[in-house]
Amino acid sequence: MAQKRKYKRVEKNIAKNVLGAFGHFFKMIGRFFAGIFRAGDRKLTIMIVPHSQSKVVNIQTNLFSLILGFILIAGIVGSFFFFNTKAAGSSSEIARLMEENRQTLASLDELRTENNNLLQVAKRFQDTLSESLSLMGIAQSTSTSSGTSQSSDLSSLFDMQELAKGSVREIVDVRQLSSYLEGAIQPVEQLGKLFESQGALFSDIPSVWPLKGGIGHVSMAFGQNVHPITGKWYIHKGMDFSTWRSGDPIIATANGRVVTAAFDPSYGFNVIIQHKYGYYTRYAHMSRFNVQKGQSVSQGEIIGYVGNTGVTTGAHLHYEVHIGSEVVDPAKYISVKLSK
Predict the structure, then answer these.
(1) Which end of the chain is more exposed for a tag (fewer CB within 10 A), N or C?
(2) Count helices and strands in the chain by DSSP H and E runs
């Protein structure tokens, strides 16, 4: 029991000491704040003495009021500088946005000009296309234009309101351009089909340059010429093509069948090809031919090589075009100089 009472006394002493320490701590804090309050509540007198004979002005205040006044003044001055900086930043941002808006308006004006030019080109294209189709006898479809004209009243009213506002004129122009192009699709497709159907015709008639790659030049034209050997006037029944050398490839100027591939004293090694529609072509003075009689050839296929065989004064190709038994000027049929 004595030991237990001893422990209780020790606990009470510890508790008493702790409570005393806390009480002393709070008293110190209280005295500290009381000292601050007394110092802040100390009366101060501010005297304003004018240089003239006017009355001296006395202003009584305390330290707290003076500190609060300084804080308010510092806050007002700081706010002024803060908002002034913000205003300067906003002014520069507004100036930047105005410059961007000016550039955007300039770009919009340029876009309007280009859009108008494009629309004018589209109109000329449509007129030219219409004339070309009329000359070719191709009927033009008016479904697109009628579909455009039969648009709803609400859509027409909307377009008129847009035009009145003037804000989306370019959109209306683009719609009109789209209508032009849409209307041109079908005629262009018809032209493509026409050219495709005519491609076989161009392949079946002698219409290309007889030397591969379009090389060489015409050394003697069809018709009346001076004979290079006799020096007398005579009728040249073909065209002579020269490259100033032997060995250059000669091609068939149209699809056909080889009816002659032989040597002739005058024409040398020569090839005659029969084509559709009564056409025949002759290729003479070859160094050698690359086909045989009865062989089918295609336009652009190599049939021989430029030479100097037969009656010649130098290496060249003598080329003739016949319709039935008549000899015609090959120049009237050579429409494509560069062959495949």
Answers:
(1) N
(2) 5, 14
